[in-house]
Write a structure and sequence with these properties.
The protein has 177 residues and is of the alpha+beta class. The chain has one domain. The protein has helices spanning 6-9, 18-22, 42-53; strands spanning 57-61, 68-69, 75-76, 81-82, 86-89, 92-98, 121-126, 134-138, 152-157, 170-175. Strand 7 (121-126) and strand 8 form a beta hairpin. It is extended, with a radius of gyration of 23 Å. The site of zinc ion (ZN) has 7 residues, from loops.
Length: 177
Amino acid sequence: MELIPKEKVDGTVRGLKRKELDSGEVLVFDWEPKLAYAWDDGPAIARYLAELKNGRIIAKKCNKCHRVMIPPRMFCELCWRPSDDWVFVEDTGTINTFVISNVDWKAGRLDIEGGVRPFTPAVIEIDGASRGMGILHLIDDVDPQKIEIGMRVKAVWKPPEEREGSITDIRYFKPVE
Ligand SMILES: [Zn+2]
């Protein structure tokens, strides 16, 4: 079924206009979706998120290979067995890799010439976790061109009353002087 006549599309992608919907040019029907759903974070991520709300980062240790894993997981994929102790790790770390992104989360172009700062997501190896264990987060409070692999960074937390048990309870990581 073709919803928009070809001559109106002209090879360009565009949004529908209210007039096209109201006039019946475009097929429309009403539907009430049943969007009730439940989400279970699981024991490892649930504890991780709860501790973020407390302003702490928690990891899980495997007592066989002695790795401290972040984000925590209930299972060591190397030893093929349940993981063991919960351990708190630092809110500091080292940039493992990063990117300077000129598009936003919706893949729209950022107005960099207009002064908008590019997004700079990074994988940060967290102090206290095993080497190579890291989380993805944003780097800020620094000129994007000065970000380097190996740079030392620290979490900038939301104030306690604004935290909600989410990875965004850490606003971003900033370089440690
Ligand atoms: Zn292990």
